[in-house]
Amino acid sequence: MVTPFGVYLRGILMGAADIVPGVSGGTMAFITGIYDRLLGSIRAFDVTCLRLLSRGQVRAAWLHVDGAFLLLLLLGIATSILSLARLVSWLLNAYPVPLWAFFFGLILASALVLLRQVPRWTPALWACLVAGALTAGFIALSPVVAMTPGLPGFFIAGFIAICAMILPGISGSFILILLGMYGPVLTALKNLELEVILVFGLGAGLGLMCFSRLLHWLLQRFHAATMALLTGFLFGSLLVVWPWKHALDWVLGRDGELRPAQQVPVWPWEFAADPMLQVCLPLAVGGFALVWFIDRLWGSD
Description:
about 300 residues; mainly alpha; two-stranded antiparallel ribbon; 16 helices
């Protein structure tokens, strides 16, 4: 039985995972043993919930959606996001390569955790895994989409990226990077731009209501294939967090600075002159060990 503090702590882990382009919040929910409960709670916002609220049965509606669980989880997520946004933004600017190395360890370990969730691998399931990896790899090597960071752009980004909260295997930050919205969203969180955060949250809420039902349908009917596909996405997204890259194209950011629009991975020894190179392997191992420890601690709850 998960205690209230345990739910809050899991929310902190989910928030930390969602703010960095490494492990998804859904992966954290999965390996800490609350994934099914989370998906069921989200899906409980249905006609029955509306009927209870229309009759003034607020307590019954609260129990129907497992409100206490969701509230504690959201508080943990908010705590993590608001406290880490400024730190991650600074690290990405000051020490990008070591930070990406840490993310690489996180995402590799998460992919291996999900790999164990499919008990019997068949040729069809391996095909799903390869298809997911190739799709994510193709997207990772594609140019960044130049979305306009206005309020409609933040709404759309929230709607799409929220799938990471309930999808084991895809990071919301990974999706925001592909949309070209990771920087603007992180800046809005760091500076507490309430209007932007509200619009982004509304998009995320609507996306969550829609996607939770689609995911439930897929997992009910094609569970193994869906998990294999998601695991493939996670392996393919390792190209996104590979620390050593060369830029092929550049775009002008909102702050007037040039930023890479398309990058390709290269071997680490091409950065042999970088003094940070020697700390990358320990950080990658540390990220891997962190996910392994969390899975050992809570994976069987």
